[in-house]
Specification:
The chain has 11 helices and 4 strands; from the N terminus they run αααββααββαααααα. This is Drug/metabolite transporter, DME family.
Length: 330
C-alpha cells in the first residue's frame, strides 16, 4: 500500500495549490506564479538528485541509454527528458487558458478528468498493456465525482483545482468555448506525456530523485525566460514570497518526490487516477479554510470521488502488482 499512499499524499500536496494562491498577492498573474513554482521546485528537485548522486545513494542511468519503443524503435534518455520537461512546461499555460475561457469548473473537470484517461490510453498504445478493468471502473467513478464537485451537474456552485496550477469556484451555465476545451484537453495530455516519460526513465533503472530532478530541473531552466517576461514585483512582498516558496517546495519538490517514488512502483495509468485526490483535497480546503459553501451535489461528488480512489487502492484478490521499477533501497 505504500506506493498508493505516496501518490495520494502527493495529490494532497497538489491540492493545497489553490488555497496557497488565495492567501497570496491578488495581482500576481497565473503565468508568473506557474513559472516561479516550476523554477523553485525544479531547482530543489535537481539539487536533491545531485546531492544524492554525489553521496552515492542514487543509481542514475547511463548518459544516453535506450529502450525499445513501438515498432522496434529505440528512444534515447535525453529525448525522454526533453519530452518530460516539455510536458511540465506545457501544462501550466494550457490549464490556465482552459479555465480562463470556460471557467474553473469546466476547465478543471476537462483537464483533470481527461488526464487519467489519456494516460491509460497512451500507455496501452505504447506498451500494448490494458490498464485493467479495476482501473477503468475506478477512473470512471472518480471522474464522475470530479464532475459532481465542479457543479456541472445539478444546481449550485462547485469548487475545482488545477493539477499544477490553480483552484477556484465555478459553475455551469456559461457558453462553452471549443478552443478552451481543446486547451484543457491539452493540459490533460501534457500531464500524461510527462508522466509516461518519467515512467520510461524509471523503468530503465533511474531513481525517483534522479528522474524528477532531471525532468523538473530542465523545465526550471526553460522557465527562467518565461518568468522574466512577466511582472515579478509580487515576489518582493512577504505574502508573495511565502506563496512562491510553498508552491515550489511543497506542491512541487516534496509532491513530485513522492509522486516519482510511487510512479516507480505502479502503472502510470494507476498513478494518474490516484492524483484525482487533488480536487478532493482542494474542495475540502476551500470549505474548511476559505469558507466556501458546497452544494449537496458537490458533497455527493466528494463521496463518489473518494469511492473511486478506494476502488483503485484496495488490494483486490487476484490483482497482480507490477514489479518495482527501482530497487527498494532507492
Amino acid at each position: 500500500m505504500l506506493p498508493y499512499l505516496a501518490v495520494l499524499l502527493a495529490a494532497v500536496c497538489f491540492g493545497t495549490t489553490g488555497t496557497a494562491q488565495a492567501f497570496g498577492p491578488s495581482d500576481a498573474s497565473s503565468v508568473s506564479i506557474g513559472a516561479a513554482r516550476i523554477l523553485i521546485g525544479g531547482a530543489v528537485l535537481a539539487a536533491v538528485a545531485l546531492l544524492l548522486r554525489m553521496r552515492g545513494r542514487a543509481r542514475a542511468g547511463s548518459p544516453a541509454p535506450a529502450i525499445p519503443g513501438p515498432g522496434g524503435r529505440r528512444t534515447p534518455s535525453w529525448l525522454l527528458l526533453l519530452i518530460g520537461a516539455a510536458g511540465v512546461l506545457a501544462y501550466q499555460p494550457a490549464f490556465f487558458l482552459g479555465t480562463s475561457q470556460n471557467g474553473v469548473a469546466v476547465g478543471t473537470v476537462v483537464a483533470l478528468g481527461s488526464a487519467p484517461i489519456i494516460t491509460g490510453l497512451l500507455d496501452w498504445a505504447l506498451h500494448r498493456r490494458f490498464p485493467g478493468a479495476i482501473w477503468l471502473v475506478a477512473t470512471l467513478v472518480a471522474t464522475l465525482g470530479v464532475v459532481l464537485i465542479s457543479g456541472l451537474i445539478g444546481i449550485g456552485s462547485g469548487t475545482g483545482a488545477g493539477g499544477g496550477g490553480g483552484s477556484g469556484t465555478g459553475g455551469a451555465g456559461a457558453p462553452i468555448s471549443f478552443s478552451g476545451l481543446l486547451a484543457s484537453v491539452g493540459a490533460g495530455a501534457s500531464y500524461a506525456v510527462y508522466t509516461l516519460a518519467s515512467k520510461a526513465l524509471l523503468e530503465r533503472g533511474w531513481t525517483p530523485s534522479s528522474t524528477m530532478g532531471s525532468v523538473f530541473g530542465l523545465a526550471a531552466a526553460f522557465s527562467i525566460p518565461l518568468l522574466l517576461t512577466t511582472d515579478i514585483r509580487w515576489l518582493a512582498t512577504a505574502p508573495g514570497l511565502a506563496m512562491a516558496l510553498w508552491l515550489g517546495l511543497v506542491t512541487t519538490a516534496v509532491a513530485y518526490l513522492l509522486f516519482g517514488w510511487g510512479l516507480g512502483r505502479l502503472r502510470a495509468s494507476t498513478v494518474s487516477t490516484l492524483t484525482l485526490a487533488e480536487p478532493l483535497t482542494a474542495t475540502l480546503l476551500g470549505t474548511l479554510v476559505l469558507g466556501e459553501v458546497l452544494s449537496g451535489v458537490a458533497v455527493a461528488g466528494l463521496i463518489v470521488l473518494a469511492a473511486g480512489l478506494v476502488i483503485l487502492a484496495v488490494p483486490w484478490r487476484g490483482r497482480r502488482s507490477p514489479a518495482p521499477a527501482v530497487s527498494p533501497s532507492s
